[in-house]
Amino acid sequence: MTVPDERPTLRIGELSRRVGVSDHLLRAWETRYGLLHPSRSTGGYRLYSEADADRIRRMKEHLAAGLSAAEAAHAVLAEAGGTSVDVRAAAGVSVTELAVSLREALESFDEPTAQAVLDRLLSDLSLPTVLRDVVMPYLADLGARWQQGTASVAQEHFASFVLRGRLSGLARGWGNGRGPLAVLACPVLELHDLALMVFGIVLNRQGWRISYLGTSTPIGDLARAAETTHPELVVISASASDVLEPLRDELTSLAARFPLALAGPGVSAELARAVGARHLPGDPVTEAEHLAVL
Question: Which class in CATH covers the domain with range 12-90?
Answer without folding.
Answer: mainly alpha
